[in-house]
Amino acid sequence: MRRTVFNEDHEAFRETIRAFIEAEVVPVYDEWFAAGQAPRDFYYKLGELGIFGINVPEEFGGAGLDTHKFEAVLYEETSRAGVNFGGSGVHVLLALPYIKMLADDEQKKRYLPKFVSGEEMWALAMTEPGTGSDVAGMKTTAKLSEDGTHYVLNGSKTFITGGVHADRVIVCARTAAPREDDRRFGISLFAVDTKSEGYSIGRKLDKLGLRTSDTAELAFVDVKVPVEDLLGEEGKGFYYLGHNLASERWGIAFGAYAQAAAAVRFAQQYVTDRTVFGKPVAHFQNTKFELAACQAEVDAAQAVADRALEALDAGELTPAEAASAKLFCTEVAHRVIDRCLQLHGGYGYMNEYPIARLYADNRVNRIYGGTSEIMKSIIAKAMGL
């Protein structure tokens, strides 16, 4: 289909990324899959390629752009190859917006050059064992010391993508108790150095999908966090989180669309090569109809994802529009990938085939970043219901 979201710069970037994936990722991806994570030194390669600095101001070593379109190309190219870049997506899509929005000049000078090079990988820690979508229910605390030089962090987090390799983690913690009329009050954000005493990584979680993306439990026991690592104003953390949810949900939506498009590509290749009853599976009417139906859904998801991308870049993507895009694209991907796996027959269930890994990877899209049910609630509220 004719698209208008990308220009020559984006397509040149696509060629570079495609060649990089073929040379640096595809040959070793099975090793990453078996290990359950991408190796730490891979992130230095992404830094050298300039991926981490696209949206970072030039004074800190970045390209100084303000767009999510290069991230969109990354989603499409990694999905096309049936790979992912470990926890690097969190580093760019989730952590960077908070640094750019909340860090003061001194903090940016400390954080961003190492962010761009991959020397310091970042993650975001919101979810706790007892609180998922209900962020306001978090129990982790950060109490200011008597001398006012640091906060003392105590608590735990779970499902933290990039948590194993992270050098800094944006931790959401309570600096004050919630008010009776405002449960969201009292949450603050901290850029926590993972080498701090009392900071520990628990289990590297054994996930259904996204096997090469390290996801961990984190624990904090009397961790001293310098006041210089408070991001933004104390007590406003919940509102900062809400500000960046639209971009996170766009990322999930666009990634889901890209996965669905990749699934159709994998299935088309397979049914063209696979012979049954003396002829390629692609020659059967059912195969043609299934793939045609899937392609129609992918075309619709692409249009929704592209529209959300344009709105995001223009600073106009509303929470309800982001929720709608996430809900639609993730549900489409769920249906399309399942049907494309079916066309693979028994081989579709084997992890050596990218469709099997894609099937497992895709499932979390309807859970993280807010479940499909939460998306429906947001949309309904915007409708006045």
From TrEMBL:
Keywords: FAD, Flavoprotein, Oxidoreductase
Source domain of life: Bacteria
Record-annotated Acyl-CoA dehydrogenase/oxidase C-terminal domain positions: 235-383
Cofactor: FAD
Domain (Acyl-CoA dehydrogenase/oxidase N-terminal): residue spans on this chain: 7-119
Domain Acyl-CoA oxidase/dehydrogenase middle residue range list: 123-223
Record's keyword annotation contains ATP-binding: no
Family as reported in the entry's similarity comment: Belongs to the acyl-CoA dehydrogenase family.
Name the record gives this protein: Acyl-CoA dehydrogenase family protein
Species this chain originates from: Streptomyces flavotricini
